[in-house]
UniProtKB/TrEMBL annotation:
Keywords: DNA-binding, Transcription, Transcription regulation. Belongs to the LysR transcriptional regulatory family. GO terms for molecular function: DNA binding; DNA-binding transcription factor activity. Gene3D superfamilies: Periplasmic binding protein-like II, Winged helix-like DNA-binding domain superfamily/Winged helix DNA-binding domain. PANTHER family: HTH-TYPE TRANSCRIPTIONAL REGULATOR CYNR (PTHR30346:SF28), TRANSCRIPTIONAL DUAL REGULATOR HCAR-RELATED (PTHR30346). The keyword Lipid biosynthesis does not apply. Residues 1-58 form the HTH lysR-type domain. It comes from Paraburkholderia phenazinium. This is DNA-binding transcriptional regulator, LysR family. It comes from the Bacteria.
Length: 298
């Protein structure tokens, strides 16, 4: 039994005669008659009673019509759902973004635009450091991530910059630095400096150390935090100062003051990154939406 047998059967019931149904489905009447007989033979029971004034469904035929109609409707729905998946119109995505950067206006703009464009695609959003994001993307547990420091020359990963993040000095509001901001990093040599272990983000750590050395600044590390949120909490508690992305100032506690320092001139490229061989249509549509939201000068 094939779907065409069901379609022919339903067409005959809708038209009330085989001759009219044959015209409706665009095949010859003898061919349609044979298809109905083949179907009855396979089923093992009669679907129609042939009468002088036409045909009438048997009780078994009435039940078969109900089920055949349901099956054809489900096939049509399955076809439509598959078409929408292939076009990236429905599905699901697992996305991550670095700690704090979910508050960026560009990220909010991207998420709103994607929801307007593809309301039937669901997104699971996580906050992860850049290093763990890269591991999750490579393993396939993440479809894409907004992160820093995509490895140069790694053809397994694709991506582009969505935002360039300046760095700022974060100090306690009641500190001497808040009252008299330093002009250069070197002035912080004797300050209680809050830092993070290199393993948390090696590339970020090394870029900052290079910047510090160029400025003649050797930080006197007194405490460590695993990520930017932890460092911000330590500053808010008055335990020292640190370097943070400027985004940390969004919704930060009043006990923290953010300062620009002349020779803290790094701008970190926040990128959307995904695996090059990820062929998910929903992911491709997401990438297109992000590209449309990003300023050409990023």
């Amino acid at each position: 039994m094939e779907l065409r047998h069901l379609r022919y059967f339903v067409a005959v019931t809708e038209h009330g005669s085989i001759s009219q149904a044959a015209r409706g489905v665009h095949i010859a009447q003898p061919a349609l008659t044979k298809q109905i007989r083949d179907l009855e033979e396979e089923l093992g029971f009669t679907l129609f009673e042939r009468r002088s004034r036409g045909i009438q469904l048997t009780p078994a035929g009435q039940q078969f019509l109900t089920d055949a109609t349901r099956i054809l409707n489900e096939v049509a729905l399955a076809k439509e759902r598959a078409r929408r998946v292939s076009n990236g119109q429905i599905g699901s995505l697992s996305i991550a973004i670095t700690v704090l950067h979910a508050l960026l206006p560009i990220f909010s703009q991207i998420m709103r635009a994607f929801r307007r464009s593809l309301p039937s695609v669901s997104i699971s959003l996580r906050q992860l450091l850049s290093g763990p994001q890269l591991e999750e993307i490579r393993s396939g547990r993440l479809d894409a991530g907004f992160l820093f420091f995509r490895p140069a020359g790694d053809e397994a990963l694709a991506g582009f910059t969505i935002h360039r993040e300046p760095l700022v000095l974060a100090v306690p509001h009641d500190s001497d630095w808040a009252a008299k901001p330093p002009e250069r990093l070197q002035e912080l040599c004797d300050a209680d400096f809050l830092w993070f272990p290199r393993k948390a983000s090696p590339d970020y750590h090394d870029q900052l150390i290079h910047c510090f050395r160029k400025a003649g600044f050797t930080p006197r590390v007194t405490q460590e935090g695993e990520d930017n949120s932890a460092l911000l909490s330590l500053v808010a508690a008055g335990l020292g100062c640190t370097i943070l992305p400027a985004t940390a100032s969004i919704n930060a506690p009043d006990s923290v003051v953010f300062l620009k320092v002349k020779d803290l001139d790094i701008k970190l490229p926040l990128e959307l990154v995904w695996r090059s061989d990820n062929s998910s249509p929903a992911l491709q549509r997401f990438v297109e939406v992000v590209q449309a939201c990003v300023s050409p000068d990023q």
